[in-house]
Design a protein that fits this description.
Elements lengths: L7 H11 L1 H15 L2 E4 L8 E6 L14 H7 L4 H12 L2 H17 L13 H18 L5 H20 L3 H5 L1 H16 L3 H18 L11 H21 L7 H13 L20 H11 L2 H7 L7 H4 L2 H9 L9 E3 L4 E5 L3 E6 L15 E5 L2 E4 L11 H7 L7 E3 L19 E9 L2 E8 L3 H4 L2 E9 L3 E9 L12 E8 L5 E3 L9 E2 L3 E6 L3 E8 L3 E12 L2 E14 L3 E11 L6 E6 L2 E2 L11 E8 L2 E8 L10 E3 L2 E3 L3 E5 L6 E4 L1
Helix pairs in contact: 1-2, 2-4, 2-5, 4-5, 4-6, 5-7, 6-7, 6-9, 7-9, 9-10, 9-11, 11-12, 11-13, 13-14
Subcellular location: Periplasm
Organism: Parasphaerochaeta coccoides (strain ATCC BAA-1237 / DSM 17374 / SPN1)
GO molecular function: lyase activity
Length: 664
């Protein structure tokens, strides 16, 4: 049975006329496969590898390049088969079809299902993904394949179908594996018109969605990349069900759209994903185009932009393509939070800030509580260090650890402790708080209890976006009274700020001579298109070091990291101020601390739990008050820099006496 109700030949003709560059890139990739050369560089290849590996004749389907099992798994997902099929459809070049037949025939004869292959060529995850790639290939060129090849493929697909029915346990009920393999089972059941197995697949997908997708649409595994894979599978099911008029369980389509909207928040202005957890820097606009085509959501089309022409048309009906083309995009870039997963997105016209304070999720999570990403006009400034590999080697543990993230660490002890590729020992409990947006300003806050038992310290972070150019990060360390004295042994707090490799830092010659700081350290920032300055307030000794940065699996380079080391022998408040603009609009940054006092009593608050700052960026002036001391039995206001107000976080713009409370 035909799964997708469209004409592949007309779609390929449309793409030839609309996107000739896609035709060229597809044929270039197909040329490699036809020559027996394999790389895994497609946008959504989960374990990328740019190294070309050539098999002059017969492929070795169990080969592990670089002693990495993931290469074997990627090879057996058969992403190269639809590429060959598309190239043949675009050009009619028989070399592509001949290579397709050679590869599919060799795999079927060389890779039987047996107990050993269930751990290699027949892992259930690969089986589910492989099914989708085979079925799409058949949709594209199945009518041109010799009958013997078509029969062999369908016999193997029936074996895949039974295998996917059997390969299911508790692990699959909540993991991305379960969704990806049950999407394959659903597609097979539609193809072979097996209503019973179609119901089995849908029941499993509903069960997985109910367990793994939170009420705010985010996914429990805490990896945007794997969330994208899961979302793509759900969209695939909704799409086919719509075309085939297959009834879906209640709320399935709505929650899929909710998940697409939540996923879109993890995309920066340039469409790239934050490298949170085990995630590569992927441009996800194509997935948003598919989501918009399936759901009709105009906001998702606005995020997709002009991308996705090589994805959604092959899966969508002509009516869907027409509706998508007519859909008027509606872009709404606002600051939002995903409270269930603990993600906060502080966004302006130019500025993207991501603050993480949620559960660890699965083994794909990292020790990244209180981590902050910042980008300006699509250029990354503060970044997550990435993942690089799944091999159980030191660089894997390092990139999962807290020091690889923009977060404070106490006593050189990670609050969440990676113990292996997928395992953790101690796991910190997050304290998810809130986000508030007022007058083009945001404040998000959260904390964790990772040092409560070992050090008796509660760590809290507040992240402020002030307009389009200034980010303020305030860290508060609450120490108990028993250690809140100068007589105790100091505990060192290490605060890290990782920069993208394109960012250059200079701590001696500032980019603007008018930039000044009365207390702390200043760094000049220069990127491809972005410049700015960074000031550290109440931080101790500061170093500028090199640190690993991995934008994608099997890719690693170095960026810069600023680390401060501060002796903590009492409660403390410290801050970092970051100013950014396009290089041709660079403005001076000035930061100075100001005492916070009670307005009526005129006594100064203890600086262990308060911080006042006067910040100017060009002509923009802000007074920021952060207070962690409640007024008990008193009626009073807080005063700083001549301004008075009440609340834990207050911001005054210019000389206006009316401040904005961003946290009560």
């Amino acid at each position: 049975m035909k799964i997708w109700l469209n004409d592949p030949k007309s779609i390929m003709g449309m793409i030839r006329s609309r996107k000739p560059e896609l035709v060229s890139s597809t044929c270039a990739d197909a040329d490699l496969a036809a020559d027996g050369i394999f790389t895994f560089t497609a946008r959504w290849d989960m374990e990328r590898c740019t190294d070309p590996v050539q098999f002059p004749g017969k492929p070795d389907w169990t080969y592990r390049h670089g002693d990495d099992d993931e290469w074997l798994y990627q090879m057996n997902r058969h992403g190269f088969l639809p590429v060959l099929a598309k190239a043949y459809g675009y050009t009619g070049d028989l070399r592509y079809k001949t290579s397709f037949i050679h590869l599919i025939s060799d795999w079927i004869s060389s890779c039987p299902l047996c107990p050993e292959s269930r751990k290699t060529t027949w892992r259930s995850l690969e089986a589910g993904i492989r099914v989708r790639n085979w079925l799409l290939s058949l949709h594209l060129i199945g009518d041109s394949l010799p009958p013997g090849i078509l029969d062999a493929m369908e016999n193997s697909l029936r074996q895949h179908m039974q295998y996917l029915v059997d390969a299911h346990d508790t692990f699959h009920e909540i993991s991305n594996w379960g969704v990806l393999q049950d999407e394959g089972l659903f597609l097979l059941a539609v193809y072979f018109q097996n209503d019973g197995l179609r119901k089995v697949a849908l029941d499993r997908l509903v069960r997985n969605m109910s367990l793994a997708v939170f009420a705010d649409g985010s996914h429990w595994e805490q990896s945007p990349m794997y969330t994208g894979e899961v979302l793509g599978a759900y969209l695939s099911v909704v799409n086919v069900a719509c075309q085939q008029e297959i009834p879906l369980p209640p709320d399935f389509a709505r929650r899929t759209e909710l998940m697409a909207v939540a996923f879109s928040y993890f995309m920066k202005k340039d469409g790239m994903l934050y490298t949170h957890g085990d995630t590569d820097a992927i441009n996800a606009c194509d997935l948003m185009a598919f989501a918009a085509a399936v759901t009709g959501n105009p906001g998702l089309k606005a995020i997709a932009g002009d991308d996705g022409a090589d994805l959604y048309p092959f899966f969508c009906s002509p009516a869907q393509v027409t509706a998508y083309d007519a859909l008027e995009p509606q872009l709404q870039r606002m600051s939002v939070s995903l409270p269930d997963s603990g993600h906060f997105f502080l966004r302006g016209k130019h500025l993207d800030v991501h603050f993480s304070c949620g559960s660890l999720g699965s083994g794909h999570g990292h020790a990244d509580l209180l981590h902050v990403d910042v980008s300006y006009e699509g250029e990354d400034v503060w970044v997550d260090s990435g993942r690089y590999t799944y091999r159980d080697i030191p660089i894997r543990w390092e990139l999962k650890g807290a020091l690889a993230h923009n977060t404070p660490v106490i006593g050189n002890q990670s609050f969440t402790e990676p113990t292996g590729t997928w395992s953790f020992g101690r796991v910190a409990l997050p304290v998810k708080k809130s986000i508030r947006t007022e007058k083009d300003m945001d404040c998000a806050s959260g904390g964790h209890l990772g040092y409560l038992v070992s050090h008796g310290i509660y760590v809290e972070r507040k992240v402020l976006r002030l307009g389009e150019h200034v980010v303020v990060v305030v860290d508060i360390f609450h120490c108990p009274s028993s250690t809140d004295t100068t007589d105790t042994t100091d505990t060192v707090v290490t605060s890290s700020f990782h920069f993208h490799p394109d960012i250059r830092l200079n701590s001696d010659i500032l980019l603007d001579p008018d930039t000044r700081l009365e207390q702390g350290a200043v760094f000049g920032i220069s990127g491809r298109t972005v410049s700015g300055n960074m000031a550290l307030i109440r931080h101790g000794s500061v170093t500028l070091e090199n640190a690993p940065y991995s934008p994608a699996y099997n890719e690693i380079t170095e960026g810069s990291v600023i680390r401060s080391m501060t002796h903590l022998n009492r409660s403390m408040v410290q801050a970092a101020v970051l100013s950014l603009s396009l290089t041709d609009d660079l403005r001076p940054l000035a930061v100075s601390t100001r005492p916070v006092t009670f307005a009526r009593k005129q006594t100064e608050l203890d600086d262990r739990l308060s911080l006042g700052m006067a910040i100017s960026y060009g002509s923009d002036e802000y007074t920021v008050m952060v207070v962690e001391e409640d007024l008990i039995g008193e009626v009073d206001l807080y005063r700083c820099n001549g301004q008075e107000g009440y609340g834990r976080v207050q911001v005054f713009i210019g000389t206006s006496p009316h401040g904005t409370c961003l946290e009560w």
